[in-house]
């Protein structure tokens, strides 16, 4: 076993760079040419959002929908850890609600939500995804779901 930390592995660093490009250039910048470059044609999302297919087109539709609802959609990556092909990222997304989402018309409200996801990167392509996003808090922030009453 090497004395180097897992995240110093050159292949892990390259995998982290691919995931960062997706977060910054695709999700945050809306560059879908980069999406096509980064996502494998046989991509599988093991935790797709409701109403989305668990494939590359489902991921594209999710990203487009988020950018339409929040044109200034962006993420702050708090940390990333990698173990070979698997990259775990903890981040906070932010944006302004300027387009319909979850059946809710634009409110102009600022939103934020946290996400932890794992992406498998092989040969420079994102091949698989597992993730948990606090989208329930978005519903609360845009007024689609009232917060629980305080006692």
TrEMBL record:
Q: Which organism is it from?
A: Nannocystis radixulma
Q: Name one Pfam family in it.
A: SnoaL
State what protein this is by name: Ester cyclase
Q: Which residue ranges are recorded for the region named Disordered?
A: 1-23
């Amino acid at each position: 076993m090497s004395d180097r930390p897992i995240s110093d592995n050159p292949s892990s660093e390259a995998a982290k760079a691919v995931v960062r490009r997706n977060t910054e250039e695709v999700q945050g910048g809306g560059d879908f040419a980069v999406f096509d470059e980064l996502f494998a044609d046989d991509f599988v999302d093991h935790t797709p959002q409701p109403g989305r297919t668990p494939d590359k087109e489902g991921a594209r539709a999710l990203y487009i929908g988020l950018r339409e609802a929040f044109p200034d959609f962006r993420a702050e990556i708090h940390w990333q850890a990698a173990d070979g092909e698997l990259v775990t990222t903890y981040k906070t997304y932010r944006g302004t609600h300027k387009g319909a989402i979850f059946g809710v018309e634009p409110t102009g409200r600022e939103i934020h939500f946290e996400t932890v996801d794992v992406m498998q990167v092989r040969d420079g392509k994102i091949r698989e995804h597992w993730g948990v996003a606090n989208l329930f808090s978005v519903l609360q922030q845009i007024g689609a779901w009232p917060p629980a009453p305080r006692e």
